[in-house]
C-alpha cells in the first residue's frame, strides 16, 4: 500500500480491495467497480491461462500480472504452485530468457552495465523500493543449460525471486532482480537488432572482478544486511571464494543445487540400503554445479564415517574430454583437481560410456547440459548392476535433461530412484502412479534466504547450507516416504521452506554469525510460529491492508520480513 501522497503501487490496483481502501489509495475509479473475492480473481486468471496454449504466452501473461497486480499474481502462484512453477520458472523461463529482448514490454529488475563502473551506487539509488532484503544477481553468462544469454538472462533473477516470495514469504518489494550487463560472448545476440544489452564482448575476468568488488560494497552500503544470491555465472568459483566469508552471500548453482541434490541423495542412499563406502558416483558434467554437488555429498559421506580421502574416492567426474584424471595431459581447471583420479593405471576413459563400464556406478548424476546423454544402454546396465540405481539427470531446462523420467524407469525395470532438475509428468505403471523427484534448488534457496534474513546472519556458512539439505531431507511426510519419494510434494513448499529456514537459523546460531537476539532461546515450536509470523502471505494481504487503512494494525510491522530495516 502506498502512502496517500505517493502514486499508487502495483498492489494497490487489486480488485479485491474495498471501496474504503481504494479511496485511501486513490485508485477509486481507476479499476472496475466490483469488489471481487479472491476466488473470482483466480478463476479469471486461470481462464486467461487456459486460453493461451503456448507456455511462453502463459509466462508473458503471468509476467504482466506480476507487474500490474502483484498480490494477485502471488496468490495464484502460491495456491497453484505445481502448475505455476513450470510456467514462471524452469522449463518455461528458459524460453523466456531466449526471447527476452524480443518480448520485452516492461521493466522487471535493475540493469547495471560495465560502463556504470565507478557509479554503481547511483544506479542502485534509482531502484524505487527502499527496503530491499535480498537480490539475485547474474551476468547472464551461463543461463540454465542454455549458455551465454547476456542481459536476456534477466528472466532468471526475476523467476528465482518470484519463488522466494511465493515459496518462502519474502515480501515482493523486498526483492531485487539484478542483471549485470558485462557484454556477451554470444555473437548472434550482439548482432540481433532487438538485443537490449551492450553490444560489446564479455569483459575480462579481472574487469569483472573489479566490477563485482564495487557492486558488493554498493549493495551492502545501500541495504545493510542484504542477502546476495549469485546465479548462473559461467565461472562462479572466484566470486564465492572472495566474497563468501565477507558478505551475506551464497551461490545457488554450487551451494543451492549441491544442497538439494544432497537431500535427495540422503533419502535415496537410505532406500538402496547400500552403505556409503560402497557407493560409486559417476558425474557427467564437471562444472560449478557438478563439483558443488559432489563436494556436498563428500561431506555427507564423511559424517557417515568415511575419511575425506575415502569419501572423495567414491566420485568419478567426467567432462567433455572424458574421465578427469591426473595424467590426462591437459591442464585441469582448478575446481576439478580435488576429484581428479589417480587410479586409472595410465588408461584414459574418453567417453561417458567407457567410464560407466569401468566404474559400474551406483549413482549416475547428470550436470552436463547434454540432453539424452544417459543412453538406454547405460540405463539398462544401471538396472542390471543395482537393485535401486540412483539416476539424477539434473540439467535444465527439460530438453537438456540427460534422460527422461520415462526412459529412466523403462530401461531399469522401474527400479530407478530418480530426480531431475526440470519437472517431468508422473507415469502410470502396473496401476500405480510413479512420481518423479524434482532435484531443483527451488526446494532450498527460498528457505536459505528466509533463514538468513530472519537470523540477520552476517555470512552464509557452509554449515547453514548443509543444514538446508538435512532439513529438506527430514521434511518428507511418512506418506511421501512410503511412496518412495525423494522430495516432498511441491504443493507443500511453503511448509518445507519453514523447515529449511529453521535449520538455517539454528546453524547460523551455532556458527555464531546470527544477530537476531530475540530468537536465540526459542524452542522449536516457538521459533516455527515466529518464522511463520514474519512471512508474507498473499492470501491475507487484502485483509491486512484493510486493517491498516482502518488503523487497526501498526504499518511499521509490515516493513519487510525483518520487521524493520537493519
Ligand atoms: O534455475 C534452475 O532451474 C536451476 C538452476 O539454478 C540452474 O539450472 O542453473
Ligand atoms: Mg542457476
Automatic annotation (TrEMBL):
Binding site for (S)-malate: 142, 396, 440
Residues annotated for a divalent metal cation binding in this entry: 231-232, 253
GO BP of this protein: malate metabolic process
Keywords: Metal-binding, Oxidoreductase
Domain Malic enzyme N-terminal, chain residue ranges per copy: 66-244
Region of interest (Disordered), ranges: 538-566
A GO CC term attached to the entry: mitochondrion
Cofactor(s) the record lists: Mn(2+); Mg(2+)
Entry keyword annotation includes Membrane: no
SMART domains assigned to the protein according to its UniProt record, in alphabetical order: malic (SM01274), Malic_M (SM00919)
SUPFAM superfamilies, sorted: Aminoacid dehydrogenase-like, N-terminal domain, NAD(P)-binding Rossmann-fold domains
Keyword RNA-binding attached: no
Cofactor: record remark: Divalent metal cations. Prefers magnesium or manganese.
Family to which this protein belongs: Belongs to the malic enzymes family.
Protein name: Malic enzyme
Species annotation: Letharia columbiana
Amino acid at each position: 500500500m502506498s502512502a496517500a501522497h505517493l502514486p499508487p503501487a502495483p498492489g494497490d490496483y487489486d480488485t479485491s480491495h474495498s471501496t474504503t481502501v481504494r479511496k485511501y489509495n486513490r485508485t477509486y475509479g481507476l479499476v472496475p467497480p466490483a469488489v471481487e473475492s479472491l476466488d473470482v480473481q483466480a478463476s479469471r486468471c486461470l481462464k486467461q491461462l487456459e486460453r493461451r496454449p503456448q507456455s511462453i504466452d502463459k509466462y508473458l501473461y503471468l509476467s504482466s500480472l506480476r507487474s500490474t497486480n502483484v498480490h494477485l499474481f502471488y496468490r495464484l502462484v502460491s495456491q497453484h504452485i505445481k502448475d505455476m512453477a513450470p510456467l514462471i520458472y524452469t522449463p518455461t523461463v528458459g524460453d523466456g530468457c531466449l526471447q527476452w529482448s524480443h518480448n520485452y514490454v516492461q521493466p522487471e529488475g535493475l540493469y547495471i552495465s560495465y560502463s556504470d563502473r565507478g557509479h554503481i551506487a547511483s544506479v542502485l539509488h534509482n531502484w524505487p523500493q527502499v527496503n530491499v532484503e535480498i537480490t539475485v544477481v547474474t551476468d547472464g553468462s551461463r543461463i540454465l543449460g542454455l549458455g551465454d544469454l547476456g542481459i536476456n538472462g534477466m528472466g532468471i533473477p526475476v523467476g528465482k525471486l518470484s519463488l522466494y516470495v511465493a515459496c518462502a514469504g519474502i515480501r515482493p518489494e523486498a526483492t531485487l532482480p539484478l542483471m549485470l550487463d558485462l557484454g556477451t560472448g554470444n555473437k548472434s545476440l550482439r548482432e540481433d537488432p532487438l538485443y537490449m544489452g551492450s553490444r560489446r564482448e564479455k569483459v575480462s575476468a579481472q574487469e569483472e572482478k573489479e566490477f563485482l568488488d564495487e557492486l558488493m560494497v554498493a549493495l551492502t552500503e545501500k541495504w545493510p544486511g542484504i542477502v546476495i544470491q549469485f546465479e548462473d555465472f559461467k565461472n562462479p568459483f572466484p566470486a564465492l571464494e572472495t566474497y563468501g566469508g565477507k558478505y551475506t552471500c551464497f551461490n545457488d548453482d554450487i551451494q543451492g543445487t549441491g544442497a538439494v541434490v544432497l537431500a535427495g541423495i540422503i533419502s535415496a542412499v537410505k532406500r538402496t540400503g547400500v552403505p556409503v563406502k560402497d557407493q560409486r558416483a559417476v558425474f557427467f558434467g564437471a562444472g560449478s554445479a557438478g563439483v558443488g554437488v559432489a563436494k556436498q555429498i563428500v561431506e555427507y559421506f564423511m559424517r557417515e564415517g568415511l575419511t575425506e580421502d575415502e569419501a572423495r574416492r567414491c566420485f568419478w567426474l567426467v567432462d567433455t574430454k572424458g574421465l578427469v584424471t591426473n595424467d590426462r595431459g591437459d591442464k585441469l581447471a582448478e575446481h576439478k583437481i580435488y576429484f581428479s583420479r589417480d587410479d586409472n593405471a595410465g588408461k584414459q576413459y574418453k567417453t561417458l560410456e567407457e567410464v560407466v563400464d569401468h566404474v559400474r556406478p551406483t549413482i549416475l548424476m547428470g550436470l552436463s547440459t547434454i540432453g539424452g546423454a544417459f543412453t538406454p544402454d547405460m540405463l539398462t546396465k544401471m538396472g542390471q548392476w543395482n537393485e535401486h540405481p540412483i539416476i539424477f539427470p539434473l540439467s535444465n531446462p527439460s530438453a537438456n535433461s540427460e534422460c527422461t523420467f520415462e526412459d529412466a524407469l523403462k530401461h531399469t525395470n522401474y527400479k530407478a530412484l530418480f530426480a531431475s532438475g526440470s519437472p517431468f509428468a508422473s507415469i502410470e505403471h502396473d496401476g500405480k502412479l510413479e512420481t518423479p523427484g524434482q532435484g531443483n534448488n527451488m526446494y532450498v534457496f527460498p528457505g536459505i534466504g528466509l533463514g538468513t534474513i530472519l537470523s540477520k546472519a552476517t555470512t552464509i556458512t557452509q554449515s547453514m547450507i548443509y543444514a538446508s539439505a538435512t532439513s529438506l531431507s527430514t521434511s518428507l511426510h511418512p506418506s511421501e516416504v512410503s511412496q518412495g519419494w525423494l522430495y516432498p510434494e511441491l504443493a507443500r513448499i511453503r511448509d518445507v521452506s519453514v523447515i529449511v529456514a529453521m535449520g538455517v537459523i539454528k546453524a547460523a546460531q551455532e556458527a555464531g554469525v546470527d544477530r537476531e537476539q530475540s530468537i536465540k532461546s526459542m524452542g522449536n515450536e516457538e521459533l516455527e510460529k515466529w518464522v511463520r509470523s514474519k512471512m508474507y502471505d498473499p492470501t491475507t494481504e487484502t485483509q491486512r491492508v484493510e486493517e491498516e487503512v482502518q488503523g487497526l494494525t501498526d504499518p511499521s510491522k509490515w516493513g519487510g520480513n525483518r520487521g524493520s530495516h537493519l
